[in-house]
Structures are given as C-alpha cells and as structure tokens.
Specification:
Blueprint lengths: L2 H12 L26 H12 L7 H9 L5 H10 L6 H11 L11 H16 L16 H8 L9 H5 L5 H8 L8 H9 L3 H12 L3 H5 L4 H15 L18 H30 L9 E6 L2 H13 L2 E6 L7 E4 L7 E3 L8 E7 L4 H26 L4 H21 L1 H14 L7 E4 L16 H15 L7 E8 L22 H12 L1 H9 L9 E8 L5 E4 L7 H25 L6 H13 L15 E5 L13 E5 L9 H8 L1 H17 L1 H4 L7 E4 L3 E4 L15 E3 L2 E2 L6 E6 L2 H9 L2 H8 L3 E7 L5 E6 L3 E5 L19
Parallel strand pairs: 1-2, 1-7, 3-5, 7-8, 10-11, 10-16, 16-17
Antiparallel strand pairs: 3-4, 5-6, 8-9, 12-13, 14-15, 17-18, 18-19
Helix pairs in contact: 1-9, 1-10, 3-5, 3-14, 4-14, 6-13, 7-13, 9-13, 15-22, 17-18, 18-23, 19-21, 19-24, 22-23
C-alpha cells in the first residue's frame, strides 16, 4: 500500500468518529453518532465518550423523575433489571447510578492542546465564513491548508510559522512528513484524536468536503487539509500528537442506564401499541365510509403537524394525511431574487432537479410592486451598512440615528406583539413571490455537470403517483392541499432547525407548490388514470404552508370561481383549527393565557427577539406511526409521534412500505437521535444556552468568543427548566400497521435497517390486521415476539416470521 493511500484510508476510517454538521442557514438534524451505528448502542456511546467525552445516557435524576411520574412501568423495569443481573429494586439501582456519576467540577488549567484548539478554530472561522466577514481571510481560493501556510508566518500565536510555510504544498504530503516517525498502524488513532478535538468544526469540514455547492468549489477544504494544519500547529507547539493510550473499556455487560432506558422506552411503546391495536380492531369493524370529504390536506409527518391535524379534522368534514415534507420531490430550489439555491430534500435522498421560481405574465403588476419594495429595501440596507462600517461616518451615523434605533429596540423589547402586527401589515401590502411566480417545471438538460432543469412528464407522473400510492389515497376531494411547513422566529441563530427537516432545514412551501403544480397538470392526470389513479375533473390541488410557531396555514395557488366557496370555508375552518392548536401549544410552553389569547401569544413569541423558546420544535418526539389516519384520528398523541399515511390494502407488493421504512423512518431516526443526545449531554452534543450564543461566519455558534463550533440543539429547545428536560430522551419507537410478513420481507432486503434495529438505535413493532390485529415486536437477529395479553388464547397461534422468510 502506498503511503498516500494509507493516509487517505486512515483519514476515512478516523472520520467515522465525527458526524457531519450543516451550516446554520440549512440546519439538518442528524445523529451525531452516525459513524457508530454499526455497533450496539451501549458500545457506541462508550466509544463516543472515549472519543469526544460525551455522556450517552440520561442522568439518574432524569430516570428518577420519569419513574416517580409513572412514565416507567415498575414491573417492566424490575423484569429487565433481573434479566441483566442487577438488583430488582429500582431505588437501589438509581442510587448506584447517582453514585457513579461524576460531580467534580472541571478545574483543569489551560493546556498546550487548548492553545492548538484556539489557533485552529480561529482560522477555521475565518476560512469557512459564508459572507459575514467584512475583511475575508486572504488566499482562501487556494484551500484551507495553503491559505493557512501563507498566513502562519504572520500569526504571532504560531511559533515556527516560517517552517510551516515550507511544508509540502499538498496536505497528504505534509501529513506523511509530519508522521514520518510514527508507524502507519498508528495513523488512524492520531487522526481520530485530532478530528475529535473539535468535532463541531470537523463535522462542518466533513460536510463541506462532500458538498456540491459554491462555497466548497470556490474555497475548498478537506479533512486532509484540516489535519495537516492541526498537526503542523501541534508540532510547532510541542503538543500531544496522539492519545495517551488509555482506553475506556465498557466491558461486555449491558450498562445499568441502558436497562433503565429500555424499560422507559418499552413503557411508552406498550401504551402506544395498546391504543393502536384497539384502533386497528375498531377500524376493521367500522362501516366503510364512501362519503367524499370537503377537502383533503396533506401535512408533513413532523410531530408538530399532529396537533394541527386533530384540530383541522374537528373543525369540519376534512381528511388529513401525513407525507414527508419535501413531498417526494428531491429538488434544488431557487426562489425569486435569491442569490443561491438550496437543496430542499433530505440528504439521504439528494437533489435530482433544479427548480426555479419564474414570474408569470398575468401577475406583472404584483411583480412590479414586489420589485420596487425590494429595491428600496435593498438600497436602504446597503447605505446603512456602508455608513456603519465606514470609519469616517460611523460616529456621526450613530449620533444621528441613535434615537430612532433606541425607539425600535424599545418596541421590539417591550411591545413584540405590536411589532408583529406592524410587520404583518407591511407584508400584506407587498406581494409575496408565490403570488406572481410559478415553479418552472419545463425539463432541460443540465450544463457542465449541473442538475437537469425541471422535470420530464414521466418524472412528474412518478412523483404524483408515489405520493398517492404511499399514502393509500384512492378517493379525491374537490380541494386537495399539500401543506409544507416553516417556522417564524426573531433573533434566533437556530431558526432553520425549526423549519422542515425533510427539506434540509428549509421551508416546505416550495415543495408543496411543485407537487400541486404537477398534480394540476392535465397530461399528468391523464397518465395517472392509466395507472389506476383517477383524479376527478372537479378536483383542484392547492399548496400551503403551516407556520409551526403560530399555527397559521396560508394557502397558495389560483382558485377557480367554481371552488371559491369551498376554499373560503376551508380558510375559515383553518382559523378555527389554528386557535385550538395555538391554545394547546401555548399551554405546553407554560404560557398562562386563555384560549382566545393563545394566537396572540404565539404571535408575540414569533416577534419577540428576547424569546428563547418561540416554539418547542420536535421536542418530545418518541414514536413513528405508519398507517391509515383512521388508526390515530381518535388519539391525542401529544405531538410526540411522526405520522405517515399508509394503507396496506393498496400495497400488495410492499413497494410503498419499503419506501417509507428506508426513507422517512431513517430520517426520523436521525431527528430522534439528535434530540436524544442533545438532551442527555447538551455541552457536547448540543449548543448550550441561547443567551450566550455567539454566531460566527453564518455557519454556527460559539459559546463565548472561540473554541469549537456548537452544532447541536440549544438548551432552551429541550428543557423546561435547568436540568429538567421537556424532551423525554427516548429512542424512536416505530409502529407499522401492515402484515408482519410484508415488513419482514423489507427488512430481509435491507441490511442497513436490520443493523439499526439489531443495534438498538430504534425499535419496530408491527400491528398485523391479518392476524387478529396482534402486535409483533422485532427482536435482535430477525426474530419477532408476539405481544398479547396473558389471557389471549390465540396468541400461541399467531405466526411470527423470521426476517429471512420470503
């Protein structure tokens, strides 16, 4: 093996220790321990603790509160404790866990490694800046390693900067030279030691190195370049280059915390499955309803949609469905007037099309009004920025405008609801881009390796058919709405974390507009009829966007005169649903307001720049239910479950359930894992308090004025008070309503799914409507356990297939 290949192979292996991190403006929720998913969960968290120092389990206090609140079934807990050889007395084991937890404060003095961290993070922040810096780092076009080489001789914090400048030009060559005295077998450990020293920054580098965007193509950075810089600085400061050799041996036994966690999860899952098995039986006995609903609304599977869907259904004769919020269209989207596109789809899918908003001739007046306002606003912003940053005018500018700025600051601080009203009124006077634009779907080949523009007719038909087949939709209402979602918040670096996870931290409205445009196309509908999907001539598809902070739903699209009354009634009922959902959410956030004031409270939170918690986001997520809406429409799932519509009777070949399990289930597991780890150790896997956030380079936040990039969720998104989590740190419990052999067949074809299940990163239970609605729980190794009451005489006859069965 050549040494070049050895360097690259060692870097690739070491990089598994850090998860990829996305910039703040396109926040993607991901498992921070994604590189450890090939091993059992309890081993993975032990390995991660050794690598990055993060705790992998809730504290004894968190378990104690859950037990005392009745969230952990005592019989279930005692049974699991006995199974793993622990004392069956929960109180005794809680005391054991509490005694084992370290309570000593970290009083270590600054080390030479800390100096390395400070130097490297300073230059990473300068290099990876995405347009915020007034004076950008020079020579960035040469790449991070070469740019640092050119600056090192001028940085007083770096000794021997001239020597660093003489290292080989290529990072791999520099690494080989810097490690010349170490055997190749140690290189992976050396690289892992340095990659995990600043896992936030290296996670961003890892993402950028794999990204196909303008920042990476213009200012390239690689893990090899990062490591060459860090090892050069460590060598210059005579800092440790490799770990000290001490290992954190987790042993072969299952940790006590793992037993408590699994008992907590089993308690939650048991209650959920009991409700779903009862609902499944009721569903089979119910008379078939051939009535056509007044409207159908398709929401994202996001847990926040569960609340609004309940209130929408209560407001009128409406049918709701759940579907991944990018609506199955993996696109790179450029909005009207935007400087750059965004990938509005999960990273697991990857963008396949370029879609751009284009103005329509019929709405030229609206476009002109929008452009005039944008030009005035842009010109004013440019003038203000120039005056503020110019040394000759900065003082006089502040003197002259201080009173106005002071009044604005006071209003934002003391009267945020009034500010919301003012901004809302201004927004109403200026047309939004969706009022004069339509997504350009005309197909065209990509140039210079770029994605193709638009979509072919065949692709449009496929995306529409996939949506209806996955959801099991066979009957269409007069009005069908695809409702994406977005958040509204002020002064929040992590605002993208509250937008649509399925759209890679972007609003879902554009995706909804694309699918609505596809489904309204006559040629598409004709092709759908050939595939057995009969869209009535009087069905109109609209798009919409659900504001998850205020629960307002805005509808997009042209409404024909024949449907105006239907849509006006829908808008009125959506306002009723909004009030009900807002009251529920306000109560969850501790707001002491009555139902009539709840909408006002959510608007205040959206506009208040001092509000640390505009909404809860996906905090509380614990379950994923895949089945018909009738299975859950009588249940209040407390915004804790992702809901994906699926009808097993319309999926004889299992293609639809395969798509859901390999796509949305994996993405929800990423989301669940990020919330879990950010809750159990916010200092390592989260981002600490919003109060002390220091945004840097439009890519992340510091805590303080330097150090590692904090890439996880902030404390306020997870806790209701200090050390008291609002988010219950549980791994995802998936429940599927389908024949168990159909699900087992999917698992047999996808080793990546069985690996996640066998290693306890999530659980899977199947409620089988063909076997008297019994539940089957997946066990390690492809076995299934039949879940039944002790007096269930038919339990023994239920068939539980092996995952390998055909």
């Amino acid at each position: 093996m050549s040494t070049d290949h050895a360097v690259e192979e060692s870097i690739d292996a070491a990089a598994d220790a850090v998860g990829a991190a996305w910039p703040l403006h396109s926040f993607v929720t991901a498992n921070p321990l994604a590189g450890f998913e090939d091993r059992p969960f309890h081993e993975a968290v032990a390995d991660a603790e050794r690598a990055v120092g993060g705790d992998g389990y809730p504290s004894a206090d968190v378990f104690r509160r859950a037990w005392e609140d009745g969230r952990i079934d005592s019989d279930e807990l005692r049974s699991r404790l006995r199974e793993h050889g622990y004392a069956a007395d929960p109180a005794v084991t809680l005391d054991q866990m509490a005694d084992a937890e370290s309570t000593e404060a970290d009083g270590e003095e600054t080390t030479v490694t800390d100096r390395v961290d400070a130097i490297v993070s300073k230059w990473l922040a300068a290099f990876l800046d995405e347009g915020r810096a007034k004076w950008p780092m020079p020579n960035r076009e040469k790449g991070f390693y070469r740019a640092f080489q050119s600056i090192a001789p001028h940085d007083g914090d770096v000794p021997a900067g001239d020597e660093i400048a003489t290292l080989p030009d290529e990072p791999v060559d520099a690494l080989r030279e810097l490690l010349s005295e170490r055997p190749v077998g140690e290189w992976r450990d050396v690289f892992e030691f340095h990659l995990t020293a600043l896992p936030g920054w290296t996670g961003l580098v890892k993402h950028r190195a794999e990204a196909d965007d303008i920042w990476q193509s213009t200012y390239p950075v690689t893990l090899a370049g990062y490591l060459a810089v860090r090892l050069a600085v460590a060598d210059a400061l005579d800092a440790p280059v490799a770990p000290d050799g001490e290992e954190n041996d987790a042993g072969d036994g299952v940790p006590l915390a793992e037993v408590w966690l699994s008992a907590w999860e089993a308690s939650y899952r048991s209650a959920l499955v009991d409700e779903l098995t009862a609902a499944s039986a009721s569903l089979a006995d119910a008379d078939e309803d051939d009535g056509r609903p007044d409207a159908q609304l398709v929401f994202c599977i996001d847990t926040r949609s569960e609340v609004l869907r309940r209130h929408v259904e209560a407001a009128g004769d409406y049918e709701t469905h759940g579907y991944a919020g990018f609506f199955g269209v993996p696109m790179r989207y450029t909005g009207y007037g935007d400087d750059r596109p965004v990938d509005a789809c999960p990273p697991i899918v990857g963008a396949a099309h370029r879609v751009t908003d284009r103005p329509t001739a019929a709405a030229a007046d609206e476009r002109d009004r929008h452009d005039r306002w944008r030009d005035v606003l842009g010109a004013g912003t440019s003038v203000v920025k120039a005056l503020k940053s110019n040394a000759a005018t900065a003082f006089s500018f502040v003197e002259g405008t201080g009173v106005g700025y002071g009044a604005a600051l006071a209003a934002r601080t003391l009267l945020p609801a009034r500010v919301h009203d003012a901004l809302d009124a201004a927004d109403d006077r200026v047309p939004d881009d969706h009022e004069f634009c339509e997504p350009a779907l005309d197909h065209g080949p990509g140039a210079d390796g770029d994605l193709p523009a638009g979509l072919t007719l065949e692709e449009q038909v496929e995306y529409a058919a996939n949506a209806f087949e996955l959801m099991g939709v066979e009957q269409f209402a007069r009005v069908v709405v695809f409702a994406g979602h977005a958040s509204e918040t002020a002064n929040n670096p992590f605002d993208a974390s509250l937008d649509c996870g399925a759209c890679a931290g972007n609003p879902g409205g554009p995706n909804a507009r694309v699918l609505a445009a596809i489904c309204n196309d006559d040629a598409v509908q004709a092709e759908l009829r050939e595939r057995g999907i009969d869209v009535p001539e009087d069905t109109v598809f609209l798009a919409g966007e659900h504001n998850t902070t205020t629960d307002e739903v805005e509808l997009y699209g042209d409404v024909p005169e024949s449907h105006e009354a239907d849509v006006e009634q829908l808008r009125a009922d959506l306002e009723v649903a909004r009030a009900g959902a807002a009251a529920e959410r306000a109560g969850d956030m501790g707001a002491d307001v009555d139902a009539d004031a709840a909408v006002r409270e959510t608007e205040r939170r959206a506009a208040d720049w001092a509000e640390t918690r505009p909404e809860w986001g996906l905090a509380g997520n614990a379950g994923f239910v895949i089945g018909p809406r009738a299975l859950t429409d009588d249940l209040d799932l407390d915004a804790r479950a992702f809901l994906h519509s699926y009808d097993w009777t319309t999926d004889p070949d299992g293609d639809a359930i395969e798509a859901v399990l390999t796509g949305p289930m994996v993405v929800t597991q990423w989301i669940n894992a990020q919330y879990y780890f950010a809750t159990v150790d916010n200092a390592v896997y989260g981002s600490g308090s919003k109060v002390t956030h220091n945004p840097v380079g439009n890519v992340g936040v510091y805590q303080g004025n330097g150090g590692d990039l904090m890439t996880g969720l902030p404390l306020q998104s997870l806790t209701s008070a200090d050390d008291r989590p609002y988010h219950k740190p549980l791994r995802l419990s998936t429940v599927v309503h389908a024949p168990v052999d159909r699900v087992a067949g999917v698992l047999a074809d996808h080793d990546e799914l069985t690996e996640l299940l066998d290693n306890d990163w999530l659980s899977l239970t199947v409620v089988d409507p063909q076997q008297d609605h019994r539940a089957f729980h997946y066990e390690r190794g492809g076995e299934w356990t039949v879940i039944a009451n002790p007096d269930d005489e038919l339990a023994a006859s239920a068939v539980a297939p092996s995952v390998a069965d055909d």
